[in-house]
């Protein structure tokens, strides 16, 4: 082997050594990057599951350490913002509750004075005076209704009201709720169709569940057209007794299935119908305290509200 061949052979071996070293370094870096990405993935998974992230050592200078430090800081910011939002929400609820309680006595006095005034105006008043009086009474009734519902919601949210469940006939609770809505339904000439057994005994608090049923019936009548109909049915399976109210009214948009249960939310299709957006919120709270469910199904036209109580 002459000198030229030796030089070429040496250069080739040197090049092979460089390539082998580079390949080894690449494999090592790839494994290291894979480990770092796995650590980052585990950190993100822990963060998204709501678990607290451990404090990482300040000595580490790797990429995954820097990213995990940033995620830790991000989690601290998000937790702080969540706590602030919860505090503000609680303070707002307490403020609304306090205002509602403070308004109760003045509203009662206002109602009494309006009743006295009504007696005088009906005897001696003119048509315009009667019209003005009715407008004032209507406004007072709306404020009183809203105030009472704020107080109910506040008591439920703060656990000040206990649900006292007893085995009662659910149909009797339904009839009591229907009795409160019949005048409103008759004015719109709405007919009811029933699919009900003769009796259905279920563990429930008749007063509170009756209020939830009334709220559902009130919405069904309110958002039904003139000469509309409402179907009411009661069914059982192994787990639940389910009470359904199906109307053929204005219905809701697809994205509103969960929004309608939020406090003060009013559907996009609501136009002239009066309301405050608290009936469904209160109804779902009551069902939750009964360990039950309140769900909605879009039917086009209308909706079907399903109230499910656990069988015991």
Report on this model:
There is one protein chain. With about 300 residues, the protein is an alpha+beta fold. The chain is about 60% helix and about 15% strand. A five-stranded mixed beta sheet has the order 2-4-5-7-6. Strand 6 (about 295-300) and strand 7 (about 305-310) form a beta hairpin. It is elongated and about 130 Å long. The model has no long low-confidence stretch (mean pLDDT about 80). It catalyses: ATP + protein L-histidine = ADP + protein N-phospho-L-histidine.
Short description:
The protein has 312 residues and is α+β, with helices and mostly antiparallel strands. 59% of the residues lie in helices and 14% in strands.
Secondary structure tally: strands: 7
Shape: elongated
By CATH, the topology of the largest domain is Heat Shock Protein 90
Strand neighbour order, sheet with most strands? 2-4-5-7-6
Which CATH class of the largest domain applies here?
Alpha Beta
Number of helices: 6
Structural class computed from helices and strand pairing: alpha+beta
Radius of gyration: 33 Å
Which percent range describes the beta-strand content?
5-15%
Number of structurally distinct domains: 2
Instruction: Tell me the CATH superfamily of the largest domain.
Output: Histidine kinase-like ATPase, C-terminal domain
Largest sheet: 5 strands, mixed
Distance between the termini: 97 Å
Low-confidence stretches: none
Give the proportion of residues in helices: 55-70%
What is the CATH architecture term of the largest domain?
2-Layer Sandwich
Order of helices and strands: HHHEHEEHEEHEE
Q: What's the overall average pLDDT, rounded?
A: 80
């Amino acid at each position: 082997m002459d000198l030229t061949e030796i030089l070429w052979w040496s250069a080739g071996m040197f090049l092979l050594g460089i390539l082998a070293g580079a390949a080894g370094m690449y494999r090592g870096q790839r494994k290291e990057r894979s480990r770092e990405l796995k650590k980052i993935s585990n950190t993100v998974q822990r963060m998204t599951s709501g678990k607290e992230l451990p404090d990482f050592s300040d000595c580490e200078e790797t990429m995954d350490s820097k990213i995990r430090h940033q995620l830790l800081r991000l989690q601290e910011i998000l937790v702080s913002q969540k706590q602030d939002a919860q505090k503000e929400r609680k303070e707002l609820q307490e403020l609304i509750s306090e205002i509602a309680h403070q308004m109760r006595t003045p509203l009662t006095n206002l109602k009494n004075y309006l009743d006295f005034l009504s007696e005088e105006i009906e005897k001696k008043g003119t048509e315009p005076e009667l019209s003005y009086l009715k407008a004032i009474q209507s406004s007072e009734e709306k404020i009183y209704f809203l105030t009472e519902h704020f107080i109910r919601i506040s008591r439920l949210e703060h656990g000040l009201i206990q649900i006292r469940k007893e085995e009662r006939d659910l149909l009797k609770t339904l009839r009591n709720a229907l009795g409160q809505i019949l005048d409103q339904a008759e004015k719109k000439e709405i007919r009811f169709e029933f699919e009900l057994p003769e009796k259905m005994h279920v563990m429930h608090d008749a007063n509170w569940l009756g209020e939830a049923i009334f709220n559902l019936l009130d919405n069904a009548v309110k958002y039904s057209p003139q000469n509309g109909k409402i179907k009411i049915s009661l069914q059982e399976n192994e787990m639940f007794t389910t009470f359904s109210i199906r109307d053929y009214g204005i219905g809701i948009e697809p994205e509103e299935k969960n929004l309608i249960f939020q406090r003060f939310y009013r559907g996009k299709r609501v136009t002239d119908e009066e309301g405050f957006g608290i009936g469904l919120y209160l109804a779902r709270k009551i069902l939750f305290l009964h360990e039950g469910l309140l769900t909605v199904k879009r039917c086009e036209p209308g909706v079907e509200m399903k109230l499910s109580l656990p069988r015991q």
